[in-house]
Amino acid sequence: MAASASGRQRGVTLIELVVVMLVLSVLLGLGAPSFGVWIGNQRLRTTAESIVHGLNTARAEAIRRNGRVLFETTDASGVSSWRVCAVDPGTLACDSAAPPVMVRDGGEESGNARIGASTDGALVLPGAFGTALAPGDGVPALVMFDGLGRLASPAGWLNTVRFDARDTMLAAADERRLVVTVSASGAVRLCDPRAPSTNPASC
User: Fold this and answer.
1) Residue 102 pairs with which residues in a beta bridge?
2) Domains with residue ranges and CATH for the chain
3) C-alpha to C-alpha distance for 78 and 110, rounded to whole angstroms
């Protein structure tokens, strides 16, 4: 016997498929800008955390060796590429006779994220974090640690004490700038200038 019309399975019509695709395209169009901002800010965090990792590696290595170790950013445009190396006592630069302790090329994963840096100790005081450092300022940046894990300060040397992770393509209202500071004792801290003062992560 033939199946009744009411028992037949009904498929999706072309009109229903077009309507669903139209709704999805509208939703994607609305969400794309927010997703782009989220991606940009995630890259900022990756960049800032990379700087923290490099600084902590240099400090730990200086303590392990009981000697001076240098953290050095290696890109003049502010891309977060860096290296950690033993210090040549004669030049206060990386010892070319020894292989670097660690190297990072941050070009691919950084996207539009760039760092700005400063040796000005006044810029790590409370209330100074509202003003952002421009991407590319103060780079290449140098931080030297001594055998006790503190900032080394040979004659004529200025350590970078602040790094700002920025995104050159995000609007100021969308950018979640992050700041990395280095204290005289060698302690490295990552903070968020936009976090409320009650938040431990605030600057």
Assistant:
1) 84
2) 14-191 (3.55.40.10)
3) 10
